[in-house]
């Protein structure tokens, strides 16, 4: 389990994954070699799985984003999963419980492209699509420092 210093380093990297060792040392109160060692251990333990850059798909002409719920027809689950993986415009996909098997995020340049992609799934699955207007909560980590309080945990005004 990462300690408080590790959590501070991780939180800083979540804000800016390009921070230098010197900057991380200043934030954590450690030396640069100590920060480098902590990062190495966090990577080895699988806590840090990569460093990334965020790119706005609109800069490449992908002006529409959709959330697609996908329900494969009987016997088509693995075929549909491979189709989703093969279509690069699907930028995220979760396999879920409930009536639908997959919930996916799709970036497209036009409604015509959206229709064409969904048509490729139509022989193997039913889809339900919602166009994303805004994203009030971007992908983020849950709180790193707050302990879990079980079922009696109340959502507090923060």
Task: Describe the protein.
The protein has helices at residues 4-15, 21-28, 32-44, 77-86, 111-121; strands spanning 64-72, 90-95, 102-108, 125-131. 13% of the residues are buried. The chain is an alpha+beta fold and 158 residues long. The longest helix has 13 residues, at 32-44. Strands 2-3-1-4 form a four-stranded antiparallel sheet. The chain contains five helices and four strands, in the order H-H-H-E-H-E-E-H-E. It folds into two domains: 4-44, Arc Repressor Mutant, subunit A (Orthogonal Bundle); 57-131, Alpha-Beta Plaits (2-Layer Sandwich), CATH 3.30.70. Helices cover 34% and strands 18% of the residues.
Concise synopsis of the structure shown:
It contains five helices and four strands.
Within the largest sheet, what's the order of strands?
Answer: 2-3-1-4
Structural class: alpha+beta
Number of strands: 4
Helix content: 25-40%
Q: How many domains in all? A: 2
The N- to C-terminal Cα distance equals 25 Å
Any idea of the CATH class of the largest domain?
Answer: Alpha Beta
Mean pLDDT: 91
CATH topology of the largest domain: Alpha-Beta Plaits
**Percentage of residues in strands:** 15-25%
């Amino acid at each position: 389990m990462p300690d408080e210093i590790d959590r501070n380093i991780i939180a800083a990297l979540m804000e800016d994954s390009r921070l230098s060792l010197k900057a991380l040392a200043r934030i954590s109160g450690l030396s640069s070699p100590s920060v480098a060692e902590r990062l190495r251990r966090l990577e080895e333990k699988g806590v840090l799985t990569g460093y990334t850059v965020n790119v706005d798909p609109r800069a490449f002409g992908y002006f529409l984003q959709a959330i697609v719920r996908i329900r494969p027809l009987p016997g088509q689950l693995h075929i549909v999963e491979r189709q989703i993986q093969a279509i690069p415009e699907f930028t995220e996909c979760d396999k879920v419980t409930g009536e639908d098997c997959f919930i996916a995020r799709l970036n497209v340049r036009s409604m015509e492209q959206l229709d064409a992609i969904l048509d490729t799934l139509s022989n193997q699955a039913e889809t339900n699509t919602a166009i994303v207007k805004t994203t009030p909560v971007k992908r983020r980590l849950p709180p790193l420092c707050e302990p879990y309080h079980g079922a009696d945990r109340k959502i507090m005004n923060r």
